[in-house]
Design brief:
Elements (H helix, E strand, L loop, with lengths): L2 E6 L2 E4 L3 H11 L5 E4 L14 E2 L4 E2 H14 L3 E4 L2 E8 L5 E7 L14 H5 L3 E3 L8 E3 L1 E2 L11 E2 L9 H5 L12 E7 L1 E4 L3 E3 L16 E3 H8 L19 E8 L15 H15 L4 E6 L9 H10 L3 E12 L5 E7 L5 E6 L1 E6 L1 E3 L10 E2 L5 E2 L15 E3 L9 H26 L4
């Protein structure tokens, strides 16, 4: 696979989540040209897939979508979606040189007008990961309703090559034999905002290894709570029943050396409390229990948020859950050690939500000269004084790529990274001139 195109910008932003978008907008508003490289088919990252944010319970989509639209329409920002960063390094002149693999959508981006006729007529249904795999989508589709860009992408593993999508496409955008491309992006500076990933249910043998239908992740619960979720209300996945008893299991992988994640994932306590409060409103008669080791309410207003949840009748049990097993009639049995009274207890719930451990979304080792700490997150020479600086001059990092943090801190850190990048650009441009 040869090089198809070389592109030059002032700045490169790796990652199109909330941190990456904030950094890109801050740089572009200072009249710098910016390329945003995103591995998914749409920008927005994890935040666009949430229902609400803590502690204000504001609509997550209402915050993220305007930033997505602003980035998409900004004359100084170029968005490259469905692209994987293969490598990034500094050349002899100190410029950043990134090799990007553009994955095939099997749709011509210049011709696609987002009419969704291909999606409407496609006869093949596949599980929809953007709905927690609770619903189905077509083998060719726009990823979700407010995706940016509104360009379809085909799943080649499930497409039957029946030709229906190509026949109904009014612009002839479907390209069955589309090949991947390699792009070279040259820039004076870069901001890495690659976010985090959630450990899969299959990694947790003591919690059923993903085989118990009514044991789900926190992100799956976000989709059940979302107004545009798979069921339009909270239902148990196994049988569509409204759950009468719901449990949240904290530190399901975090703070656990046996799982390879000895650190606290930091955001889990607050998003579990948020989801419990939303569930209390959606299912006012349901019993909601949060099994926790320690509640970490670290931000402004978070302790009050925790106390409000207690006042709403949400039960908090200080315990370490040892085992989760399937029960009768779709129920889930939770066995735990009570850390207050001692001894072990067994309780049955209709639905169990795991606050799974979080890990870095991208590993720079072998791809670029950045260093990582023992936890796998990007580390720099001054993690306390300047957390956005890396060991490589001119390359900065922000958001969960540096370490797990909430949305507010991710946005603030992204703006700090953009400020450092802008200062670096000014110093570089005085010696090199602007990038064409």
């Amino acid at each position: 696979m040869g090089i198809n195109q070389t592109l030059s910008y002032d700045a490169l932003v790796v990652g199109g989540g909330i941190a990456g978008l904030q950094a890109a907008l801050d740089l572009a508003d200072q009249d710098y040209s910016v390329a945003v490289v995103e591995r998914d088919a749409s920008i927005g990252g994890t935040m666009i897939r949430l229902s609400k944010v803590f502690p204000t319970l504001d609509c997550a989509s209402c915050i993220t979508t305007p930033k997505m639209a602003a980035a998409a329409h900004h004359p100084k920002i170029t968005i490259l979606t469905y692209c994987e960063l293969e490598s990034m390094e500094k050349d002899g002149q100190g410029r950043v040189r990134a090799v990007v693999r553009k994955k095939p959508r099997y749709v011509d981006e210049d011709k696609c007008i987002g009419c969704r006729q291909c999606e409407y007529h496609c006869p093949v249904y596949v599980p929809d990961p953007d709905q927690g795999n609770f619903a189905a989508r077509k083998a060719i589709c726009v990823p979700f309703s407010n995706a940016v860009p509104q360009i379809a992408v085909m799943d080649p593993d499930h497409c039957m090559l029946c030709g229906t999508c190509a026949k109904v496409c009014p612009t002839g955008a479907v390209v069955y034999d589309q090949k991947p491309e390699t792009l070279i992006i040259e820039a004076l500076t870069a901001v890495v905002a690659t976010g985090f990933s959630v450990t899969p249910l299959e990694d947790k043998a003591q919690y059923g290894s993903g085989t118990i239908p009514n044991v789900i992740t926190g992100l799956q619960m976000e989709r059940l709570l979302a107004p545009h979720g798979p069921y339009n209300r909270v239902l148990r996945p196994s049988d569509g029943m409204e759950p009468d008893s719901i449990a949240f299991v904290q530190c399901a992988g975090s703070r656990d050396k046996s799982m390879g994640i000895p650190y606290c994932s930091r955001i889990c306590c607050m998003y579990a409390i948020k989801q419990a409060m939303l569930l209390s409103g959606a299912l006012p008669l349901a019993d909601i229990t949060i099994y926790y080791m320690d509640i970490r309410a670290f931000g402004k207003g978070y302790e009050q948020f925790f106390q409000n949840a207690q006042a709403m009748g949400i039960q908090f049990v200080k315990a370490k859950v040892a085992l989760i097993e399937p029960g009768e009639d779709g129920s889930v049995t939770v066995r735990y050690e009570d850390q207050m009274s001692g001894g072990t207890t067994q309780v049955s719930h209709d639905l169990v939500v795991l606050s799974s451990g979080k890990v870095p979304g991208w590993n720079p080792q072998g791809r670029c000269p950045l260093t990582v700490g023992p936890d796998g997150f990007i580390s720099g020479p001054e993690p306390k004084l300047a957390p956005t600086r890396t060991v490589e001059e001119g390359i900065f990092a922000a958001g969960a790529a540096v370490g797990l943090k909430d949305i507010v801190d991710s946005i603030a850190e992204a703006s700090a990274a953009a400020m450092h990048a802008a200062n670096y650009l000014e110093s570089r441009k005085k010696g090199l001139g602007a990038v064409a």
